[in-house]
Amino acid sequence: QKEVEQNSGPLSVPEGAIASLNCTYSDRGSQSFFWYRQYSGKSPELIMFIYSNGDKEDGRFTAQLNKASQYVSLLIRDSQPSDSATYLCAVNRGNNDMRFGAGTRLTVKP
Amino acid sequence: DAGVIQSPRHEVTEMGQEVTLRCKPISGHDYLFWYRQTMMRGLELLIYFNNNVPIDDSGMPEDRFSAKMPNASFSTLKIQPSEPRDSAVYFCASSHRVGNQPQHFGDGTRLSIL
Question: Taking the C-alpha atoms of A52, A55, A57 and A61 in order, what is their torsion angle to the nearest 10 degrees?
């Protein structure tokens, strides 16, 4: 079992729709969780982080964490073509030991 | 504030040559990470340092790979001898030691071994 698993996609949604990206992790001791966005040919950039169970909202983005189920998700509301990118889920297992998922490629169609 | 700085941005070299990638972390960050990214394997952690000391190098693929961090503001990743299968984008990232901080990535070095 991979440490961090994501659906590779591609996930395609129409402009204005909600995009839902999912991630599961294997280490129950994991402490913090991050979502990175990576445009083609660019480096990953942090868009959200969450430490506690529940939801965390930032603009059009909502991160959801369920530690009992070892599940993290990212919702993007009112998706825009500029949101088209690969989204990487990252899990900090402690002591800054970060593990990344393979990423989900999102396409938002105008 | 300056971000993580990597050099060179692109490197093309012939098989068997030595390759050295460089990284300057964000000032004040205590952790430095080297990653490799390919289409097939995604983003792989190669090695990371805390306060200039290597903590986990289990991701380093072979003895041909080595990494050093002689001081808090500089790290190198060296491949000797290089092989075509080493072609990838190599990222350096850094993070602050306090709490579970996110990692900040450099722009990467796109390495092509012919």
Answer: 110
